[in-house]
Specification:
Layout: E1 4-13, E2 16-26, E3 31-35, H1 42-49, E4 57-62, E5 65-66, H2 72-78, E6 79-82, H3 94-99, H4 114-126, H5 142-155, E7 160-164, H6 172-187, E8 191-195, H7 199-205, E9 208-213, E10 216-221, H8 223-226, H9 229-236, E11 238-245, E12 248-256
Parallel strand pairs: 3-8, 3-9, 6-7, 7-8
Antiparallel strand pairs: 1-2, 1-4, 4-5, 9-10, 11-12
The chain binds adenosine-5'-triphosphate.
Keywords: ATP-binding, Nucleotide-binding, Translocase, Transport
Function: Part of the ABC transporter complex HmuTUV involved in hemin import. Responsible for energy coupling to the transport system.
Protein name: ABC transporter ATP-binding protein
Amino acid sequence: MMRLEISSLSVDLGIRRVLQGIDLSLEPGRLTALIGPNGAGKTTLLRAMAGLVRPSAGEVALNGIAVARMGASERARSIAYLPQGGGVAWPLPVASVVALGRLPHGEEPDRLPAHGREAVAAALLSVGLRGFETRPATALSGGERARMLLARAFATQAPVLLADEPVAALDPRHQLIVLDGLKAHARAGATVVAILHDLNLAARFADRIVLLDQGKHEASGPPKAVLTEARLASSFGIRASVATEEGRLLVVPHSPLPDA
Ligand SMILES: Nc1ncnc2c1ncn2[C@@H]1O[C@H](COP(=O)(O)OP(=O)(O)OP(=O)(O)O)[C@@H](O)[C@H]1O
């Protein structure tokens, strides 16, 4: 069980301060949705959590150990990171690409031990790609490719999974399948964070929503507490209504507000 603690984190990219004084504690067993308008700093925060961006101030720590000071292989075993819109350059079979997720454990993709093969099979199943094992990775649709790369991250079975827009390219059915998979991964004990732009999916699946706005941690809490009409106006610049239907929060965007 790994707790990710972010304390007083600031990040500068070039001459810009992109994240400012972020404090956040992410617990095992929970699916956290990271939301915010374009340019709010979501990807930068996720990359900082993965130890891929150096903080200008503050730190990200996993069970008390700064991720920036962890060795690359320990970090890769502990934190699976799915970047936004990743691709594959080689026509490897899908199963081999997913098996690359076992490399942090020292398992060679073409010589996986039994538990490595089980991890790959479970990962393919959880993204709805069973039956795709022998297909060349370069001959997939955009959504299939996105699911294959998520399966690679699942296959690592890391205690922390960070996914940057994991459902952006997916059809509605596969969005639900993948979010179910992320939630199940969390319920099995992982700390899972996913950047989501679809507020209704965030409301439905996230245990907790973290709202970033202009590099600052604007709000966090259960979906109902974060997704208010006032915040949709102030952070996202939209007029929207928030309703509850059959116990489910429903966000209906109506119109963009004029620039402040
Ligand atoms: N290498 C860079 N140098 C300077 N500024 C950068 C760099 N990369 C990103 N930025 C800026 O940092 C800010 C945050 O970017 P980031 O990608 O973290 O936002 P985001 O919330 O993930 O956005 P989106 O929803 O559009 O994916 C943006 O204003 C972006 O223009």
